[in-house]
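debug: dumping io for the single-chain case to check the tokenizer round-trip. Nothing else runs in this session.
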Amino acid sequence: MAAVGAPGVVALERIVGALKMLLSPGGSDSSSLQNTKHDVLLDTLKSNLSALDEKFKKDPEWKELKNLQDVIASGAEWLQNSMDVTWSFTSQLLVLLLCLKQSMILLAANFQPSEPNPRTAEAAPVLSPDTLSISQQKTVQSALQFVVTLGICPFLLPGVGIPLRRRTEFGAVIQDIVSFSAAPSAVHRLYTSCIVLLDVAKHVSLGSLILSHHLGDIAAGLCQLGFCPMKKKDELAKPLKEGLKEEERTQARKALQSILDQVYQPLVVRELIILQGGPQQTCSDVKAVPSARTPAWLRRLCGQLLSERLMRPHGVQAVVRGILEGAGAGAAGGAGAEAVAADWRKCDMVAKILASCPQQSLSLEDYYQQICPQILDLLHIRDKLVARQFQRVATTTFLTMTREHPQLAMKHLLQPMLEPVHRCSSTTELSAKQELLPGTIVVKEEELSCCLEDVFKVFVVGNEPGAALLESLRPVLGIIFSLYCFTRQNVSPLRSFCQEILLWMLEKLERKAALAALKGLAGLDKSMPSLHPLCEFRAASQGSTMVTIKETTSDEDEVLYQKVASEQGQMEFLVDLLSQRQECGLAGDFFVCCLEELTQIAVEKKDKIPPSPISPTSLLALEEYQSFLIEEQENKLLLLQMVAILCERMSETVFTSITQVVEFVAATLKRACVSLTQEAESSVEAQTLSMSMGLVAAILGGAVQLKSSDFDVLKKLVPLLEEVSCTYPEPVIQELAADLRITICTHGAFSTDAVSVAAQATMKKKEPRGDKMEGQLHSKSQRSSETDVVQTHSGQQPLCGKASYTESSSAAPPMPPQVQEVPRQQCLLAKNTASNQSPIGTTLEQFQEVLLSAYDPEIPTRAAALRTLSCWIEQRTPQALRTQEKLLKVFLENMEHEDTFVYLSAIQGVALLADVYPEEILPSLLAQYGNSTNKLPPETRMKVGEALMRIVRALGDMVSKYREPLIHTFLRGAKDPDGSHRASSLSNLGELCQRLHFLVGPVLHEVTSCLIAVAKTDPEAQVRQAAVHVVVLLLRGLSQKATEDVLDQAL
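debug: decoded output
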């Protein structure tokens, strides 16, 4: 802009002193009149200009500055002297700023710092001579403010930039003293001020002072110079009637593009938004003046420039920072950042901007292709001060794009985000280029962690369950669940992410889809994608998890063991997951779904036949058919196992509504009807049928406060109850089913005494329970660890209803004679129910009757009697404690029974009895367990071993008192001829060692020698695996101290 001559370097203090002389305030007295303020300001400007000229003429020390000023002024292409004092003042400031820039450049070029002296202490580096002090920076900043105020702002068109009148009171005074009629023209003054300031800004220090404070005004001036349509007929353009040359307009456009590319992009975005007509604040000291509307050409131009900022690399982050920092967040976040993060409207506005495709983009897909990776990057910002607001904007933008253009969002957002999980899916073929060696990393730790965190932020925190989001997450749900199961066995930061994602997905899916997803997670539906069979999760070095190629093993037994253990763990973890969302009722619906599947299994009379006949020569078809049968059998076993775990862990809380109870009863009635049609009625079906009818009677009898809508749900049972009343062989069940059907159809208006008595017997007390149905329908079922035992024990209650139903047929209030005709076990159960509520008041007659029932040929009666005796022992009933030897004999004899209901109840009774009298009971059990020459069958010895294991667990730390006889018995059992008994002994030995901790020390040598010998020489695989399992339990009992001691000895 200015030619640089030969004058020497001028001290910065001299140039800054000249600026300070120009900016010194005048000495005239101030007045409250507006015209006086104008005159005072004009007089001050004239006086300061004259004073500076006088200084140049008379003071020889200012000669160097005068020479430099003359050189700069002679090379200037603009008119410096004018009839308008404001422009003369502005021109002088511009020339001095150019002098300052020139001197700073020369000083920096001649600066040669001295070499540091290695013999002296290290000192701070010497400042460059072109560095401005704080006071000098303030003076230069004041000069820049005068240049912008007098040389740019007055010549901006209405609506372009922020008017001076809306800034300060002083700005309103300046607006009125500028003369537009004097030469040079307004457009040339604006052009000169903008171009010269940009020339001065080429110096780094001066550029930071100019662009950090005056970027908006300079950009507004350049926009007007380069893009404003110059129409003479426009009254607003009269001050600009002497237009610029095309070359000057082109230079203005290039200058605008240059500063927009060089300046900090968030600052550019903020200033462009203000120019476009963004929020503007007025000074409280100035009377509010309505601002002019932003011209259409400027709005279009700013929109185009903002779109260009957005389409640049890292443009999304620049736009977000520009908007949010301009809203008060600040570059460093802080309290303002928290306030903006809480303002969801601001984040929603930014998201709409990012989700809208600009006109400059080639196509919508091209825009998504450029923007979506940057949106995903916003989720990964680690700066805690701004991460929250950035992640909220990214999540809102993500959801907006997915909602408006789901296909493009699936391609450019969802698939890239979920790619690490898809990479290890069973539906994905592993790369042929990748060596599938054991331990090869398929998904890195950082990738998997980042993927799950992003899914959590978008899906769970965003909480907008759109169809596209649910469909995208469904294929990887099985992999996330497998990872959740892995983290449950380890310490991993990903556990909470996996858990929240799974719970959110199951909650937001439609109930039918959620049940299908649960079946897939439980392994009941093989169509759900899961972890690739060649991959496994492994703990990573940073404490998280990675996916690697797993090692293959040729030991089929080990593979089978791992498969069974994995399936068992997944089902248990799935039930634990469901227990955390009991209020939504998903667990109850899944339980009913599993029961309906059991009904379908009951319908199958025999295995499915193959689709085509098999010839003896078709070995391949025969093998496929056998595989099909094995898979069908595995599915049935998995289903039974799932029902068992649900009953065991959620028996008291599985149902949360009347509808679920009705569906459960309907499934039970259907299964009973199927058994009747197949003529395959069993005691189990009878028990479950009685239980379900007892539940219905309890609901109708007052256990729940019923509404009219509840009867509409109960009417689903009417056809099934009618079928039972017509086809079931027992008259008592037929009559009760008929009465229940009548009660439901009449909405409870007509109810027989049989229904009331059955309801009271089911609830185990006379008064109703009210609304608290949850957790009460199966309150006793948690005492058993087996599903069948649960069903048997629960089945006691409706049988009381059968007896009561017969009793109620008599009109006399006392107990009628018909009670004698009722089967003895039904009356017994009713009495046991009452006695369980008050154990201390158990009479000798009741005790003898229950003791006699323990030998009843009817399996339900015998199991119920054993359960009652166990309950009395647990509650320390005096009558039961006085006859411990007799009870032990009863339990031991019932342990030989082949039915699961009976011997499991007997095992439980023995364990409870030994917990009360361990010194009397343990020797007898150990003698029977360790004596291989007696007449006890191997199955009975195994049952005694199960009882010993329960006793060891119940004794806890007190088991150390009986360490010697227990260990010796188990070590002898490890040499038994029967392989099953050897495995049982080792299993009990491991359980004992885990409880003993370091107290196992005196016999540690004997134990380890036995384990080594068994692991090396035993011919059966299950025994060798049991020996290894003992080592695991032994180390688990010794905890971390064992490995520390071994390490100390090794060192």
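debug: round-trip ok. The domain at 845-992 is CATH 1.25.10.10 (Leucine-rich Repeat Variant).
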